[in-house]
Every structure is written in structure tokens, then in C-alpha cells.
Design goal:
The complex is a heterodimer of chains A (about 375) and B (about 270). With about 375 residues, chain A is of the alpha/beta class. Helix content of chain A is about 50%, strand content about 15%. Classes of the chains: A alpha/beta (about 375), B alpha/beta (about 270).
Chain lengths: ~375, ~270
């Protein structure tokens, strides 16, 4: 099994409980952020030496929830300091962006890294559409067209133009082209059945960043497998990534207490403004169908879901190395995925605790699960 | 406004054709299915005079003994253009097998063809590419993204089958026209190569070959369209072709909603 170290890069030096959107940035301290960026990048680089095969970045806007408004900039920094790990962009929020720029930047990252890019092409969460003033109702249409365009930009043997519904380009010939041939592996979200099917149609890695319900996750994976079969291919374990929050400590109690505090900070401080905007989008648009909308409402409660239940369900990997090994084995058996994404920086969890957690992963967990 | 049917006598025999519109002449060469009256053709006829010959042998017309293969027919069309289209420069649009013949015409007529548009061009299927299915239903499935947009053409299934029987007369069983490939660099016309992004019948390599061999050419992928973009995406196809024909090379430049004064370009819809 391969492991991905996923990071949100939150801005943690705030105690304000925002409920407005966008989150005002009066309190932002650039010196603190400068230190945080350095610490986070150090942590992501350290993860490679702890056995992680991927380092995961992601895109969020206009809140302290995440400071990677352009994850490719972080990816570029990581490429310079890592040798082996894949740089997993999980990922660019394609409908918000110029897809030509996405194709170009990803080709740059892939070339600079010698073919270590995992190219996440995602739709994102609803509030990002407020931030970039893109109609949420167009998100799927834009995503699908942009993916087709990006693939063409990477692979076309000749300069070309594109006459689309949302995008028109009359002359495209990107420099550089991607290092990986014919193109970098694409990753797409599988947060709904429709998304999972779309990922299968595009022959993308199915990315389930946060597994919260084993049965629901199985359903998504099955939808992905079924659709792939319709399209004439069979996904292997390497085509499925499942993720979870994780903290490894000497005792369950120690890990649990820290995680509880980090999650409270995430729910109350980092996630406040986002929820306001999300509610607005969900009420005023067709961003999600009704079933997914309900699921999303449930998802909002995940931040407050009791840790003990999640640990018991093995959807949160918190505890001793033995407990985490046991949970990873269980998840592998149930879900059949080939990549496990672990997110350790939850809320304001201390960076030192995360370093210790990474060391325990390196010394105790990874040797036991890497060959699963 | 509607297409008017006419007839002319050429060296190989009589040729029926449809004519509509006003303005600079465009020769439109149909696909192996036969003449198709589409929304984009009506729109183009608002600014151009469109001449659409019925390939001899199609739709009940007499086949010509002197026409065997795309190059031979292109020679006849050259005669048609000189006799019926005013003798000056013309633009040419060709679809599928019509695109193949259009490319030959651009070779044979040289600078007399001002601008060339080829769509889902036939005759350039690289060796090793699987052939198109012969079953009409299977072909239709590969050719259209939105088959429900096909308007009835008034032909019975038998008439459609008779038309398809003429395809070997025009392609002579050739799937990769090596002679044309060798001569593509002779084309001087400013060329736009249109390829439906979901065309399941013509390989993308056929269009990239054209882009590679024709000096002044542009390849455009039409999103969410198959082999017949005129049917799958009529508005998008019209916008693209109109822009190319009216602005020439400058169609690469985004002029926003207001084209520069004197450019002759229509404002964007």
C-alpha cells in the first residue's frame, strides 16, 4: 500500500470565531504565516523520509482553513526538497480556473519533478464558487469540458484550438509538455456517485479524501468500478485513494485529547465562515442534487462527530501505532484501495505532535502496512 | 430563403447542385451520406453564396464514367467553380469524404481557393487504424453525440443505401491517400481543420496530419461534437466557421464583443 501525507496548511494564529464570508483578514499576521509555511513545508518534506509515497496539496480560498490558494506554488517548493515522493495535487479546482493555465502549470510541475505529479482535477466545495464568482450550477459542465481540454493540451501532436461551451482557445501549444507520457495520472474526487462515475469515465484515480462511512464509501467505489467496466477497463487498487485524519501517539488518550482539541479548532475557528457561504450556495443553486445535498448536510456534522465513534468505526486513525496498524488493515480489507491518504494537521494540532506522529508512522506503522 | 436546385453540364456529364445566399462564393462538398440541409448552411447563406453540388450518382442522379476517385472529382469541381461560381477566388468547405475532395481541390486550384474548411476529413486514415463499421446503425452511434438532433432528410432507407453504394466510386477503396498526403504542402489556402472532439469515425491523426502538412492551417477541436458538428453543435460550428471566413488569420485574436471598426467582422453573438 502507498501512503499520502495530506496537508491543508491552516492559518492557526487566530482565535476569532467567524460566521461571515469571506472571512475578514484583519487579524492576519504575515510574519506568523511566513513561519507556518516554513514549518508546514518542512513537515511535508519530512514525511517523504518517513515512508510516505505521495505528498498531498490542495486548494482553498479566502479563509484560514487553508493557505494554499494555489497549491502548485507549494508543489513547486516541495519538488526542490524531495526526491522520490509523488507530488499529489488534490487538487486544482478546475472550474474556477483557466484550464489552459492548469494544463501549463501541471506540465511544469511534472517536468520539474521528473514525472512525479499526480494531477488532481477537482470541482471543489461550494463556497469556492462564491470566492471566484463562478456560477455553481455550471461546476460540472465546466469541470468535464476543462478535463477534456487539459488532456488535449497535454497530448495533442499539433497546435490546436478549442471551440467549447465554456472555453474557447484558438491557438494552443503548451511548453513544456508533461514529463509523463502520454500524460500525468489524473485524480478526481468521488464524494458523490455522480463524481465517482465521472472519475471512471475519465480513467482517473478515485480520490476519497475523507472516509467517514465505510458502507457509503464502498458504494462510491462500486459505482466507480461499475462505470469503469462500462467504459472497458478494470480499476486496480492503485486506482483508488482513501483518506482519513490521523494522529499517532504513545497512548490512545494522548492522541485522542490532542485530536479533540484540533477538531474543535477546525470546527469553530477555521470552518466557520466557510459554512456560511456553503449554506448559501446549497440553498441557492443546483450545485448538488438532493441526495448529495443531504449527504453534504450530514458531512457538516462530521467535524463534530464523536472521536470515539470514528475510532471505533476505524474511519479516524487516532491512537497507538498498533491501533492505527489495525485500522489501516481493516480499511484495506473493506475498501480494497491502494493508496491511503493521512491528514495529520487537523485544526491547531501542535506541529511538534505531528512530527512525533510521523516518526511513529516511520518506525512502527509503515513497516507493518507497506506491503498490504 | 431556401436552396434552389439547379443543373449544369460539365465535361463528364450533368451535375445537379443547390444554391443559396448572397456574397462571396463558397463551394460546400457533402459527406458520403449525401446532401444535408443544416442550420449552419442557412446561417452562412446570409453572408455568402453557397453552392452545394450533388455528387454524381447520389440521390438518383447519374454517375459519371469519368469520375473515379477524389482527385478526378476534384478536377470536375474545378471546372464547376470556373463555370458556375464566377471564375474568381472561392472558399471551400468539405465534410468527411467531401473534406478529402476539398483538399484535392485546394491542391489543384492553388490560389484560386482563398480559404478552406475541412471537417472530419476522410481519406487520411493512417495505416493500422481500424476501418469504419459498414453497418449504418453502428456508424451512426460512432458519428453522433446527439443523434436526436438529426433532422429527417426525406430519404428512404433504400435511398440512403443507394447513396452509400457510391462511396467506393469516390474513394476507390483507398483509406489513406498517399498521393494527397504528398501534395498537401502545395495547398496555399488558409485552412481550418475542424475535428469533433468525440468523433468516433475519423481518427484524430487524420486531422493532425493535415495540420502538419498544410502550411497555413489551424486545427480546431469542437467540444462535445462527433463526426457531424453541424448537427451536434450547430451554433458553435456556425460561430467558428463564420469567424474564420470573415476574419481570416485574425480569427485567432479575441476581439471581445466589439470588433475593430472596418474589420468586416460581425459582432459576437
Amino acid at each position: 500500500m502507498q501512503f499520502s501525507y495530506f496537508h491543508l496548511m491552516p492559518y492557526t494564529a487566530t482565535t476569532r470565531k467567524p460566521d461571515d464570508w469571506p472571512v475578514p483578514n484583519h487579524d492576519f499576521d504575515a510574519k506568523v504565516a511566513n513561519e507556518l509555511y516554513a514549518a508546514y513545508i518542512d513537515s511535508m518534506v519530512f514525511a517523504e523520509s518517513c515512508g510516505f509515497d505521495w505528498i498531498g496539496c490542495n486548494e482553498h480560498h479566502m479563509s484560514p482553513y487553508g493557505m494554499m490558494s494555489n497549491p502548485n506554488i507549494i508543489g513547486s517548493a516541495l519538488i526542490q526538497r524531495t526526491k522520490r515522493a509523488k507530488i499529489a495535487m488534490v487538487g486544482s479546482l478546475v472550474p474556477l480556473l483557466n484550464p489552459l493555465r492548469v494544463a501549463e502549470e501541471y506540465a511544469m510541475l511534472d517536468t520539474m519533478s521528473g514525472g512525479r505529479l499526480i494531477a488532481g482535477l477537482l470541482r471543489g466545495i461550494p463556497h469556492e464558487y462564491v470566492a471566484y464568482n463562478v456560477p455553481p450550477d455550471e461546476s460540472y459542465g465546466r469541470l468535464i469540458e476543462a478535463i477534456h481540454f487539459i488532456k488535449k493540451a497535454w497530448t495533442s501532436e499539433e497546435p490546436f484550438g478549442w471551440e467549447g461551451k465554456y472555453y474557447q482557445f484558438r491557438a494552443v501549444s503548451i511548453w513544456p509538455r508533461p514529463y509523463q507520457k502520454p500524460m500525468p495520472r489524473i485524480l478526481m474526487s468521488g464524494s458523490s456517485e455522480a463524481s465517482a462515475k465521472l472519475a471512471a469515465r475519465e480513467k482517473a484515480i478515485l480520490g476519497l479524501v475523507q472516509v467517514t462511512d465505510i458502507d457509503a464509501t464502498k458504494k462510491m467505489i462500486q459505482a466507480y468500478r461499475d462505470e469503469a467496466k462500462e467504459c472497458g477497463w478494470t480499476p486496480g487498487p492503485e486506482d483508488i485513494m482513501c483518506g482519513s485524519s490521523c494522529l499517532i501517539a504513545d497512548s490512545f488518550q494522548e492522541a485522542r485529547d490532542m485530536m479533540e482539541e484540533g477538531r474543535a479548532f477546525l470546527a469553530d475557528i477555521l470552518g466557520g465562515g466557510m459554512r456560511t457561504a456553503q449554506q448559501l450556495v446549497l440553498q441557492k443553486s443546483r450545485y448538488y442534487d438532493d441526495e448529495t445535498k443531504k449527504k453534504f448536510r450530514d458531512m457538516r456534522n462530521i467535524m463534530r462527530m464523536p472521536i470515539d465513534k470514528m475510532v471505533k468505526d476505524k474511519t479516524m486513525l487516532v491512537g497507538t501505532p498498533e491501533m492505527v496498524i489495525d485500522s489501516i488493515k481493516y480499511l484495506k480489507k473493506e475498501l480494497g484501495h491502494g493508496t491511503m491518504s493521512l491528514s495529520m494537521k487537523i485544526g491547531n494540532l501542535p506541529n511538534a505532535a505531528i512530527t512525533r506522529s510521523l516518526e511513529k508512522f516511520r518506525d512502527h506503522v509503515h513497516p507493518e502496512v507497506k506491503n498490504l | 430563403m431556401a436552396f434552389e436546385r439547379k443543373e449544369t453540364k460539365l465535361s463528364t456529364g450533368p451535375v445537379s447542385y443547390y444554391k443559396q445566399g448572397k456574397g462571396q462564393p463558397i463551394l460546400y462538398l457533402h459527406s458520403g451520406t449525401g446532401v444535408r440541409f443544416t442550420e449552419p448552411l442557412d446561417k452562412l447563406a446570409e453572408s455568402y453564396t453557397i453552392y452545394m453540388p450533388i455528387f454524381p450518382g447520389y440521390d438518383g442522379t447519374a454517375a459519371h464514367d469519368g469520375i473515379k476517385g477524389g482527385k478526378a472529382f476534384a478536377g470536375v469541381l474545378k471546372e464547376f467553380a470556373e463555370k458556375e461560381m464566377g471564375g474568381g477566388k472561392i472558399d471551400v468547405i468539405g465534410h468527411s469524404i467531401g473534406g478529402w475532395i476539398a483538399a484535392w481541390l485546394a491542391v489543384l486550384m492553388g490560389e484560386q481557393v482563398d480559404q478552406l474548411v475541412v471537417v472530419g476529413t476522410g481519406g487520411l486514415r493512417p495505416p493500422g487504424t481500424p476501418p469504419m463499421p459498414s453497418d449504418p446503425a453502428a456508424l451512426r452511434k460512432l458519428a453522433y453525440v446527439y443523434p436526436e438532433k438529426i433532422k429527417p432528410d426525406g430519404r428512404t432507407p433504400e435511398q440512403g443505401a443507394e447513396n452509400r453504394k457510391m462511396i467506393p466510386v469516390y474513394n476507390q477503396g483507398v483509406s489513406y491517400d498517399e498521393e494527397l498526403v504528398a501534395r498537401l504542402p502545395e495547398i496555399t489556402a488558409l485552412t481550418m481543420i475542424v475535428h469533433g472532439e468525440k468523433d468516433g469515425t475519423i481518427p484524430e491523426a487524420s486531422s493532425t496530419l493535415l495540420r502538419n502538412r498544410i502550411k497555413k492551417s489551424h486545427l480546431i477541436f469542437l467540444y462535445d461534437a462527433g463526426h457531424v458538428p453541424e448537427v451536434d453543435q450547430p451554433e458553435r460550428f456556425t460561430r467558428l466557421v463564420s469567424d474564420f471566413l470573415s476574419r481570416g488569420e485574425a480569427f485567432l485574436v479575441n476581439w471581445g464583443s466589439q470588433p475593430p471598426a472596418g474589420s468586416g467582422a460581425p459582432a459576437a453573438a
